Amino acid sequence: MINTREASYPIDTVYLQRWSPRSFLNKPIPEETLFSLFEAARWAPSAFNNQPWRFILARTEEDREKFYSFISEFNLNWCKNAPVLSLIISETENERGFNKTHAFDTGAAWGYLSLEATKKGLVTHPMTGFNFEKARSVLNIPEKFAINALVAIGYQGEKNSLPEVLQERENPSPRRGIKASLFEGSFGMEMNETTGSFMK
């Protein structure tokens, strides 16, 4: 696998190295290494320092089997080799009432986690292909917590260990140009890729 990602502006290479493979080695992660990912997530910013994120881990065979009960067949085809699964949830209510930034803040924590995983030689693959309500029931998640995503964590395996249809997709995905995501001043003022000026 050749990573052909290139940045248009100078950034740390960890952002280009992080991607979401589906091939995992059935190899345990040392606890100190694993917990360093959640230590990184711990330091993410959040509104009023509410830290709404929570992570439900499945590291044992018994716990992973519980998680398998709500994961789609497509995702089970590849994620069963991952030694760790983590369900990311966020607290939607606190002493201030409804926390309208719970998902935004938890997304920041997930981002920190994924980058620390890359720095530690691990890979992560988030997914939403699972039954959210069954996950809530199986894992006894209170209603005030939103379910955001399920993440497989582990060491990257060989591409050819995947079914053929997935091997074709086992490459870092590209991104649209930065200027295609930018507006200036108001919505709809898009930047001209050639001149660098903004236009409606």
TrEMBL record:
Organism phylogeny: Bacteria, Bacillati, Bacillota, Bacilli, Bacillales
Location of the Nitroreductase domain: 17-74, 75-155
PANTHER family to which the protein is assigned, alphabetical: NAD(P)H NITROREDUCTASE YDGI-RELATED, NADH DEHYDROGENASE_NAD(P)H NITROREDUCTASE XCC3605-RELATED
Pfam family, one: Nitroreductase
Organism annotation: Perspicuibacillus lycopersici
Record keywords, A-Z: Oxidoreductase
Family according to the record: Belongs to the nitroreductase family.
Annotated GO MF terms: oxidoreductase activity
Protein name in UniProt: Nitroreductase family protein
